[in-house]
Design brief:
CATH class of the largest domain: Alpha Beta
Oligomer: single chain
Order of helices and strands: HHEEEEEEHHHEHHEEHEEHHEE
Strand content: 15-25%
Number of domains: 3
Number of helices: 10
Shape: rod-shaped
CATH architecture of the largest domain: 2-Layer Sandwich
Strand order of the largest sheet: 3-2-1-6-5-4
Structural class: alpha+beta
CATH topology of the largest domain: Beta-Lactamase
CATH superfamily of the largest domain: PAS domain
Radius of gyration: 54 Å
Length: 477
C-alpha cells in the first residue's frame, strides 16, 4: 500500500510513542531505581556505622546486648529495617526480627548461625541485594559495617530493608514520568493536527485542483483560508489557471476571428469570379467586380502579412537590428505613402519636431511599421477635413513620439482592449473593411520588444493620442 505524507507522519508518531513508552518504562525506571537505591543504601550504611561505633564497647556483654536489642527494635520499626549483629564466624547474636520460640538463649548468646558465611563474598561495596544466604523469602537490600574493639574485628552490623520498599517508592514517583510523556505526546499530536489543517488539507485541495485542470476544468478555484505559503501557492495556482483559461479562450477567439476574416473576402472573391465566369456579369460591370476582387485580395494580403509579422515578434524569437537613424525623416517618408488617401478625404498632417533631425537607436524597419500602423489607424478614425498631429519631443535620454487624431475616440471600457489581437471597434468596421484588428497589437509587440512603453489617451467624440518612447542616440559619424 502506498502511504501518503500524513500516514507516514502518523506511523512515525506511533513509533515514537512506543519507543518513548518502552524507554521510560525501562531506562527511566532503572535510573530512578538506582537513584533511590543509592539514597537508601547510603542512609542504611550511615546507620550501620553509627550503630557499630555506638554499641561496640558493649558488644560482648549479654546483659547489655539485650538492652541494645530493645533500643534497636524501636529504630528498626521506625525505619522499616531489620538489624543484625553477626560475629566473624557467621553466628547471629542480635536480630531485631528474630522470634525465639523456646525463649531460651544459651550462654554463648548465639541466636542462630549462617552457614557458609563469608563477608568477602559480599563484594567490595557496603551493600548487596538478595536473600542474604537464604535467610529471607524476598529480596533484601543488605548493608553491613564492621564492629571493631581494640583494633580487632569482632563482627558486623548488618541492616536489611526489603527491596519492595525501594520499588514502591520508585513506582510512587514513577507515574510523574508517564504523565510527562503523555503531555509530550499530546503536544506532538497537536503538531500533527496543525499539519493536517495547514499543510495536508491545502495540499489535497491543490491536488484536486490539478486533477480538475487536467480534465480541462480551468475555472476550478482552490480555496485556502490561511495567509501563509500554502495560501500563496493556491493563489498562484488560481492565477495560473485563469491565465491558461484566458489563453484558451483567446486561442478560440483568435481562430474564430481569423477564420471569419479569411472566409469573408474569400467568399466575395469566389462569388464575383464565378459570376464573371458564368457570364452573368454584364461586360460593362466586369472592371468594377475586378476592382472589388482586388480590394478583397489586398485585405487577404495585409491580413497574412500582419499575422506573419506577429509571429516574428514572438518575445522568444524576435531579433532586432538596432541602428541610429533620424526619426523625423522616417515620419515624413511614412506620411508620403498616405498622400493619395489623405487628398481624397482632405486630411492634413501637422508636424512638430524638437529639432531638424532627431537621432534615435532602434530597429528602423520595425519602428517604421509602428509609425505606419499608428498613422493608418489615425486616418481610419479621422473625419474628412480634419488634421492629424504628429510630434517628436526630447525629454532626458528619451524621444517621445505622439500621433493624435480628431476622431470618434475610444470609450473607457474598451481602451484596454485595443491591444488585443483582432479587436475592432464598430466604427472601424463601418469605415474601413480592410481593418484586420492586428495593427495595434503589432505596435504593442514592437515597442515591448524594444523595452519601451506606449500609452494611449482618448476621449469619446474628441480624439485619440498614442505616445511611445525610444532611446536617443548620437548622430552617426
Amino acid at each position: 500500500m502506498k502511504l501518503n505524507i500524513l500516514n507516514k507522519y502518523i506511523c512515525v508518531y506511533i513509533a515514537v510513542a512506543i519507543i518513548s513508552f518502552v524507554g521510560v518504562t525501562l531506562l527511566a525506571y532503572r535510573i530512578d531505581y538506582n537513584r533511590v537505591y543509592k539514597e537508601k543504601s547510603d542512609d542504611m550504611y550511615k546507620q550501620a556505622v553509627s550503630i557499630a561505633a555506638r554499641f561496640a564497647p558493649d558488644y560482648f556483654s549479654n546483659d547489655k546486648l539485650r538492652i541494645i536489642e530493645l533500643e534497636l527494635n524501636t529504630i528498626a520499626e521506625l525505619d522499616h529495617t531489620r538489624i543484625m549483629f553477626i560475629n566473624t564466624d557467621g553466628n547471629v547474636i542480635l536480630d531485631t526480627k528474630y522470634i525465639n520460640v523456646n525463649e531460651e538463649i544459651d550462654d554463648s548468646g548465639i541466636l542462630y548461625s549462617i552457614s557458609d558465611f563469608n563477608i568477602n563474598s559480599l563484594g567490595s561495596g557496603h551493600s548487596v541485594t538478595g536473600n542474604f544466604y537464604g535467610i529471607f523469602d524476598e529480596a533484601q537490600i543488605s548493608v553491613f559495617a564492621p564492629i571493631t574493639n581494640a583494633f580487632v574485628m569482632k563482627g558486623y552490623v548488618v541492616v536489611h530493608m526489603p527491596e519492595s520498599v525501594i520499588t514502591q517508592r520508585v513506582y510512587t514517583t514513577f507515574n510523574t514520568n508517564y504523565f510527562t510523556l503523555l503531555m509530550v505526546l499530546l503536544l506532538n499530536l497537536s503538531f500533527i493536527v496543525l499539519y493536517i489543517i495547514h499543510v495536508h488539507n491545502p495540499l489535497k485541495a491543490v491536488s484536486k485542483a490539478i486533477k480538475e485542470y487536467g480534465r480541462g476544468n480551468l475555472s476550478y478555484k482552490v480555496h485556502a483560508g490561511h495567509n501563509d505559503e500554502m495560501s500563496n501557492l493556491s493563489a498562484s495556482l488560481n492565477y495560473m489557471a485563469s491565465q491558461i483559461n484566458e489563453m484558451d479562450q483567446f486561442q478560440q477567439k483568435f481562430l474564430s476571428n481569423i477564420s471569419h476574416d479569411f472566409r469573408s473576402p474569400l467568399t466575395s472573391i469566389k462569388g464575383y469570379l464565378e459570376a464573371i465566369e458564368d457570364g452573368t456579369v454584364p461586360p460593362e460591370m466586369i472592371n468594377k467586380y475586378i476592382k472589388i476582387v482586388l480590394f478583397e485580395t489586398d485585405r487577404l494580403t495585409k491580413l497574412t502579412s500582419n499575422i506573419l509579422t506577429l509571429n516574428e515578434l514572438d518575445p522568444k524569437t524576435v531579433r532586432l537590428e538596432i541602428t541610429s537613424f533620424d526619426i523625423n525623416a522616417l515620419i515624413k517618408h511614412t506620411i508620403e505613402t498616405f498622400e493619395v488617401t489623405c487628398k481624397k478625404r482632405k486630411i492634413q498632417f501637422q508636424l512638430t519636431f524638437s529639432g531638424e533631425k532627431e537621432w534615435i537607436s532602434a530597429d528602423k524597419s520595425k519602428i517604421g511599421q509602428v509609425i505606419y500602423n499608428l498613422i493608418d489607424n489615425a486616418i481610419k478614425f479621422s473625419p474628412e477635413n480634419s488634421n492629424i498631429f504628429i510630434a517628436v519631443k526630447e525629454k532626458g535620454e528619451k524621444a517621445y513620439i505622439s500621433v493624435k487624431d480628431n476622431g470618434c475616440g475610444i470609450s473607457k471600457e474598451n481602451i484596454d482592449r485595443i491591444w488585443d489581437r483582432f479587436y475592432k471597434s464598430d466604427s472601424s468596421r463601418g469605415r474601413d473593411k480592410k481593418g484586420s484588428g492586428l495593427g495595434l497589437s503589432i505596435v504593442k509587440e514592437i515597442i515591448s520588444a524594444h523595452n519601451e512603453n506606449i500609452d494611449v489617451i482618448s476621449t469619446v467624440g474628441v480624439g485619440t493620442e498614442f505616445i511611445f518612447t525610444l532611446p536617443l542616440s548620437k548622430a552617426p559619424s
